[in-house]
Amino acid sequence: MVPAQGKVMDYGCGTAHVLLQAARKRKDLDVYLVDIPEAITKDYAIWRFKKHGTRYTWLDIPENEQLIGVDGGLDFIRCHDVFEHTFHPDVVMNGFAAMLKLAGIVSFDFMDNDGDYNKEKTKQSMER
């Protein structure tokens, strides 16, 4: 196996399509797939990585959203379509800051909660 030359994470990975494509092209990546334990896409994402013989580490997002299991030194964190589903986005982002290398990059988006979007938010569902 090729030694890792880059550490990347997909936080809220879903089917992990983006990192699977990257990992298939770059065998030197150390990939972390992260999602909630009950994600319906978890088994599928793991199956896809195994099917392609691609190295990965799966981490469950705990209820307190304080992710453990990454020793730092991440080069890249991808977090798309996730923050609106977190209860503590500040905890998540502070965790990212602690896990990144000094010149590391976070790619994320965030749908605000002003009600103009039709996207469902976890916080809204819990308030009902």
Task: Kindly describe this structure.
This protein is α/β, with parallel strands linked by helices and 128 residues long. It contains 4 helices and 5 strands. The longest helix has 11 residues, at 89-99. It starts with 5 loop residues before the first strand and ends with a helix. The model has no long low-confidence stretch (mean pLDDT 84).
Give the structural class: alpha/beta
Query: What would the principal axes of the Cα set say about the shape?
Result: globular
Order of helices and strands: EHEHEEHEH
Spans of at least 5 consecutive residues whose pLDDT stays below 50 are none
- The overall average pLDDT, rounded, is 84
Major sheet: arrangement of strands: 3-2-1-4-5
Question: What are the defining features of this structure?
Answer:
128 residues, alpha/beta, 5-stranded parallel β-sheet, 4 helices, 25% strand, globular
